[in-house]
Write a structure and sequence with these properties.
alpha/beta; Enzyme I, Chain A, domain 2; TIM Barrel; 2 domains; eight-stranded mixed β-sheet; eight-stranded parallel barrel; 16 strands; 13% strand; binds phosphoenolpyruvate; binds magnesium ion
Length: 581
């Protein structure tokens, strides 16, 4: 029977292939009682799965793509250490023997036991290790079924589609190094970190497909439409043919888009627009260059710290990462955002700094950096040192007031002083900017504009805080609306204020890469966009086909409208002559 599932499309086109369920979890595992003569074979099956898991993790550790965050190696080593612990590799064996049960059930019992033990711990950091331990046991569990997929064999998943619960930093390594047609996840919303990592892979993907793993079975044919956010399980021949046609059409349109890679980005009436790229790790630079971005508009530097146990990539490690990017970008600018780490992005931070009921409203972004000045100074020094080798700009996240920005700039001045004292060169003219993503900053923008060389609007968080919607909570995702009248008003007011003061303004949130919004943003006076490399050519295509004078009346009408329905209708009209995917 054919079933259609819905989620959030991350783009990347259409994929058709066989499902591979990556991480089956332990919920719903069945218990079987074994005959005495079956136990020895079950023990061997378990030992074999542990061996395969070890090989898999060691392979991953030895094949981290260049430029991936250095801490991923440490993360994988930790997984191997856990696997070698008798609680994981031995205890289930004893359970199989004592309970005469199947290996899956033994793993489930041991996972439940260890989870309970971790829950009892008072040390928040150790408590946080629970997920890691369970993940390792789940890996063993998956391999019990026979290792259908060998990560080392890149050809194998040529047409495969991963069905997974979520993406983690370790998955990122696997995914970037392997060759598969697309993926779907149970978790994730459009602006969650799952989505941000996923979009970066530029393959058909749909996230937030609730219960995807329960419905899809291994080896079933599935279609992923990353454009519409639809997944079709077991399509009939008619549907299959239709999607094959759409896939071909999409590939042809991508081919056409490639032809404009090297063209200047200018509107029909001759206004130059700059298109920058967002990156998470230095390895993303290849795509930035391929798509001829004007520079890096947002380097989410916190990805250098995610997944680490100590959270700290030291000054030298950071310096080398920034250097790699700035050298690769040659004369084009690279905007490094200081670590935007908080419990919302990095659960481990929670572990050492106490849990927060509302992480997105807690010690995150610049607040965390100002609270951890040693950490902050180390990052500022690393960025400054790299600035001697290219065109770096620095940007602070989650600024909520002029005085908070002043404190951040003060820390930057102190870091500069230190380097001068140590005779370490840096760019004395380094430009400083602020993210505008907290409504308070938008409403008191003048005090911020006075202190900076540029601003960048973080629409992901701006929408979250304006509309009071947790961007990671699927239950309220339907309310997350970039075309909410409040959102478009605030965004246009920020752009107008910056343009009036001649302070360069860009958008680096997901709105910038959404082709349906390109004309609206151009009409608001935006001339700099920063987005994932995968979106650059689509946005460029719209810009090349836009006349600013022509769209102006409709855009001002949209900005004067308070009805959501009307706004959607007018935006549709604004784009009606465009062929958009
Ligand atoms: C934003 O909030 O729009 C943004 C660009 O930052 P992040 O998505 O990393 O929070
Ligand atoms: Mg943000």
């Amino acid at each position: 029977m054919s079933i259609a599932l819905h989620g959030f499309g991350l783009g990347g086109g259409i994929a058709i292939g066989q499902a591979y369920i990556l991480d089956k979890d332990l919920e719903g595992v069945a218990q079987f009682t074994l005959e005495a003569n079956e136990i020895a074979a079950e023990v061997i099956r378990f030992e074999q799965a542990v061996k395969t898991t070890r090989k898999e993790l060691e392979y991953l550790r030895g094949n981290i793509p260049s430029g991936a965050p250095a801490e991923l190696g440490a993360f994988l080593s930790l997984n191997i250490m856990m696997l070698n612990d008798s609680q994981i590799s031995q205890a289930p064996l004893e359970i199989i023997k004592q309970e005469s049960c199947n290996a899956e059930w033994a793993i489930k019992l041991q996972a439940d036991y260890l989870s309970h033990q971790f829950d009892e711990m008072s040390d928040a950091y150790l408590k946080e290790r629970k997920n890691d331990v369970v993940q390792v046991l789940e890996r063993v569990f998956k391999n019990l079924e026979g290792n259908k997929f060998d990560w080392a064999d890149e050809g194998k998943l040529e047409k495969g589609i991963l069905v997974t619960r979520d993406l983690s930093p370790a998955d990122l390594v696997q995914f970037k190094a392997s060759n598969f047609a697309g993926f779907i996840t149970d978790y994730g919303s459009l602006t969650s970190h799952t989505a941000i990592i996923g979009r970066n892979l530029d393959i058909p993907a749909v996230v937030g497909v609730n219960n995807g793993r329960q419905i899809v079975r291994d080896d079933e044919i599935i279609i992923i439409d990353g454009i519409q956010g639809v997944v079709i399980v077991n399509p009939d021949q008619l549907v299959l043919n239709e999607y094959k046609r759409r896939k071909k059409e999409w590939q042809e349109s991508r081919q056409k888009l490639r032809a404009i890679r090297k063209d200047d980005t200018v509107t029909r009436d001759g206004v130059k627009i700059e298109l920058f790229a967002n990156i998470e790790i230095p390895a993303d630079i290849d795509d930035v260059k391929y798509n001829h971005a004007d520079g890096v508009g947002l380097f989410r530097s916190e990805f250098l710290f995610l997944g680490r146990n100590d959270h700290i990539a030291n000054e030298e490690e950071q310096f080398l990462a920034y250097l790699h990017v700035v050298k690769a970008m040659k004369k084009n600018s690279v905007t490094i955002r200081t670590a935007d780490l908080g419990a919302d992005k990095n659960p481990q931070w929670n572990a050492t700094h106490g849990a927060s009921d509302n992480p997105a409203l807690g010690l995150t972004g610049i607040r965390m950096s100002l609270a951890e000045q040693g950490f902050f100074r180390m990052q500022l020094r690393a960025i400054l040192r790299a600035s001697a080798f290219g065109k770096i700009q620095i940007m602070f996240p989650m600024i909520s007031s002029a005085w908070e920005l002043k404190q951040a700039i003060h820390q930057l001045d102190l870091a500069k002083e230190e380097l001068r004292d140590e005779n370490i060169p840096f760019d004395e003219k380094l430009k400083v900017g602020s993210m505008i993503e907290v409504p308070a900053a938008a409403l008191s923008i003048r005090g911020i504009l006075e202190q900076v060389d540029f601003i960048s609007i973080g629409t992901n968080d701006l929408i979250q805080y304006l509309l009071a919607i947790d961007r990671n909570d699927e239950a309220v995702n339907y309310l997350y609306d970039p075309l909410h009248p409040a959102v478009i008003k605030v965004v246009s007011q920020i752009i107008a204020a910056a343009n009036k003061e001649n302070v360069p303004v860009s958008i680096c949130g997901e709105m910038a890469g959404n082709v349906k919004l390109t004309r609206l943003l151009l009409g608001m006076g935006l001339c700099k966009f920063s987005m994932h490399s995968a979106n650059i050519l689509n946005v460029k295509h719209v810009i090349l086909n836009t006349d600013l004078n022509q769209i102006a009346p409709l855009v001002s009408k949209i900005l004067r409208t308070d009805s959501r329905e009307k706004i959607y209708e007018l935006v549709e009209r604004l784009n009606q002559d465009l062929d958009l995917f």
